[in-house]
What we know:
alpha/beta, Rossmann fold, five-stranded antiparallel sheet, 13 helices, globular
Amino acid sequence: MRTIARAPHPGPLPASGEREKLDADALFAPLAAEPALLLAVSGGPDSVALMLLASRWSQRPERTVVATVDHGLRPEAQDEALRVAEWARTLGFAHRLLRWEGRPATRLQERARDARYALLAACARDIDARCAVVTAHHADDQAETILFRLTRGSGVAGLSGMAKASSLEGLKLLRPLLDLPKASLESVCAEAGHPYFRDPSNENPKFARAKLRALAATLVAQGLDREALLRLGRRAARSETALKFFTAQAQERSLVASESSRARFDAAALRALPQEVLLRLLEGQILRLGSKAPRLDRLERATEAVAAALEGRARLKLTLAEVLIEITDATVTLSRAPPRSIRPRPAAGA
C-alpha cells in the first residue's frame, strides 16, 4: 500500500546545502515565457514539491494546471489521485484526473510510462496547443537513469541522461528540478508540513530500477555514487553535442537530393566519415522516412554493412525499420521500403 507521510522517511537528513530554501522564481525562470503549463503530479514527494514550488512562483502563467494519472494498478490509486486533486485546488490550481484503462501482461512499467506520457500530452493539447508538460525529475532520477542505461549498454546519447527540455508528441517536456537532489524536494514538503504518498512499486524487487536501488550502497562503496554518474552524464552530453554538430555538417556536405520519401547521398563523401557519424546520419534519415526508430544493435549492424560496402565500392541493398538503403558506386539512397507481399495460406488439406 502506498503510505502517506508528512515528513521524509526513512533516511538521513539532507546535507546542509540541500536544506537551503529553494527560490521558486529562480527555478522556474526558464519557463516564464510558456503560455500554459501542465504539472504532472502523482502525489509522491518529488511531484508534490514541484506543485508547492510552482504555487510560490510569482511569474507562473495564468493557465498552470495540475494533472494526475490514475493507472488503475492498485486499489487505492483512485483515492490517492482524488487527494492530490484536493491538494492542487487548495494551492490554487485547476486539476485534471487522467485514467489509464490498459493493464498489459508484460513490460508493465514501460507501458504504463508510455501511457502516462500519452495521457499528459493529450491533456496539455486540450488546455492549449502550446502547453508544455512539466515533470518533477531530479538529480537522483538522472543518476539512476544513467546507471540503468549503462547496464543496458546504451550509447552516448543514452548516457547523456534526461534533458531539461525535450519533446513530447510535438509539445515541450520540461524538467526544471533536474539539478536538485531528491532530499531537497523532500525538504520542501517537510518545511511546508505537506503530506505525500510513498509508492511501494519503487521498492518492488521484480522491477529493474528497484534492483539497482538495492545495490546503491555497494556501488557507492566502489565510487559509483550520484555525483560520479552525473559527471558521466555531463561528459556524455558534451560528446553528444559535438557528434550532433559534426553529423549535421556531414549531412550538409554529402546530401545530393532530399524528398519526402527519399534521400540521396554522395557515396564518396560518406566513405570518408567515421562510422559513428555515418550511423547518426543514417539514423536521422531512417527516423525521417520510417515509421519507427531502429534498435541500436540493428542500426549498428546495418551501419557496419554500409561502411563495408562503401569501403569495398560494392553494391548493397538492405531494409531497416521500413527504410530501404541502396548503395551503388556513386550514391547511397534511402527510401521508404515497399510493403511486403503476403503469400496466401494454402487451403486446408492442400
